[in-house]
């Protein structure tokens, strides 16, 4: 057990899906996994292990922001032998080319967080997804006919930012979406030798001021969960 996870040794599968919201982890366990059991609940950061098409899979909340996901991802990898972490979250779009309900897969993750510079001797380490996980997710999205984009995401320390010029810059550089954890997850995976992928549904359009309805949010979330489970139920 760790300061933040009270699961027994061996309680997690080698592959863990990580939504930000622990109640989303509960929703996935109850609606998509078979024989799911709660394995950790410290601070109500719920984690479950169950089966999808006969394969052992875990799902656990990460909380919001790079510091939070960094704690859970590190402990899962070093104390529970987790090899693959797939973040499934929500993001805001900054470009007109990206529409609400699209799925965005982070081939790379830019950030305003100092955490990866702190980690990598104050130089820039490129935060990238594991290619095998990314390829499997893209293949599953093709198969399920989900509309998706692959490219660079921006992991922001601030959810509330009034820096419009930064959003202009992101659009110019082809940033597909803004969220708050991917670059941290990729840094932890690189440091401790695991594989990671971050995948988001576009729930907000930051520049256009558009937001999904509760019903649309649920539909697109279900599609992303399904495609992720299809991707990770193959041999990784
Ligand atoms: O929907 P989740 O996975 O929590 O992701 C996004 O939503 C939260 C902000 O509302 C941040 O965690 C951001 O990254
Ligand atoms: O971080 C986030 C997540 C969803 N939508 C946003 O605009 N930002």
Automatic annotation (TrEMBL):
A single GO cellular-component term on record: cytosol
Catalytic activity: uridine + phosphate = alpha-D-ribose 1-phosphate + uracil; a purine 2'-deoxy-D-ribonucleoside + phosphate = a purine nucleobase + 2-deoxy-alpha-D-ribose 1-phosphate; a purine D-ribonucleoside + phosphate = a purine nucleobase + alpha-D-ribose 1-phosphate
Key word rRNA-binding present: no
KW Glycosyltransferase (keyword) present: yes
CDD domains: PNP_EcPNPI-like
Annotated Gene3D superfamilies: Nucleoside phosphorylase domain (3.40.50.1580)
Superkingdom of source: Bacteria
Enzyme kind, highest EC tier: transferase
Keywords, in A-Z order: Glycosyltransferase, Transferase
Annotated site, Important for catalytic activity, chain positions: 217
Family annotation (SUPFAM superfamilies): Purine and uridine phosphorylases
Family of this protein: Belongs to the PNP/UDP phosphorylase family.
Main function: Catalyzes the reversible phosphorolytic breakdown of the N-glycosidic bond in the beta-(deoxy)ribonucleoside molecules, with the formation of the corresponding free purine bases and pentose-1-phosphate.
Identification of the protein by name: Purine nucleoside phosphorylase DeoD-type
Source species: Shewanella woodyi (strain ATCC 51908 / MS32)
